[in-house]
Design a protein that fits this description.
single chain, about 130 residues, alpha+beta, 6 helices, 6 strands, about 40% helix, about 20% strand, elongated
Length: about 130
C-alpha cells in the first residue's frame, strides 16, 4: 500500500511536522478539540491526506495550514516545515497577537530587591 494513498494518522503527522513535542500531546490536543481537519473535529486516528486544511490551536497561537506532504517520521525543523504551508493571514494574526502580548506585558524589575526595596514593599503591603 502506497503511503501517499493510505495517509498518515493525524497525531503522528502533527508530531512529525513538529507542532507537538510528543504524540501523546498531539493526541490530547486532538481530543480536546484544538485541532480541526477540514472544519470538522477529527479523531486521533484520522488519516491525513495531501491538500487537507488544518486549524491547530497550540497555547496562545492559532495555525491555519494546508498539508503539502505526508511523513510519519520526525526529522529536523527545515524538513518538517516542508510538510505544510501556513496561510498568510494566519501568519499575520499570530504576529499581531504576539505584538499585543508583548505590549501588554508587565514591566520586570531590573534585579532582586535590596534591603531598602524590601522594606518599602513590606510597608506597602502592611499599609504603614
Amino acid at each position: 500500500m502506497n503511503k501517499e494513498s493510505a495517509g498518515v494518522r493525524l497525531d503522528k503527522w502533527l508530531w512529525a511536522a513538529r507542532f507537538f513535542r510528543t504524540r501523546s500531546l498531539a493526541r490530547t490536543a486532538i481530543e480536546a478539540g484544538h485541532v480541526r481537519y477540514d472544519e470538522q473535529r477529527p479523531k486521533v486516528s484520522k488519516n491525513v491526506q495531501v491538500g487537507a486544511q488544518l486549524r491547530i490551536r497550540r497555547g496562545q497561537e492559532d495555525f491555519e495550514i494546508t498539508v503539502l506532504a505526508l511523513s510519519d517520521q520526525r526529522r529536523g525543523a527545515p524538513e518538517a516545515q516542508r510538510l505544510y504551508q501556513e496561510h498568510a493571514d494566519s501568519v499575520e494574526r499570530r504576529e499581531q497577537a504576539r505584538l499585543e502580548r508583548r505590549a501588554n506585558r508587565m514591566p520586570q524589575p531590573d534585579g532582586r530587591p535590596d534591603r531598602r526595596d524590601r522594606r518599602a514593599l513590606r510597608r506597602f503591603k502592611t499599609g504603614d
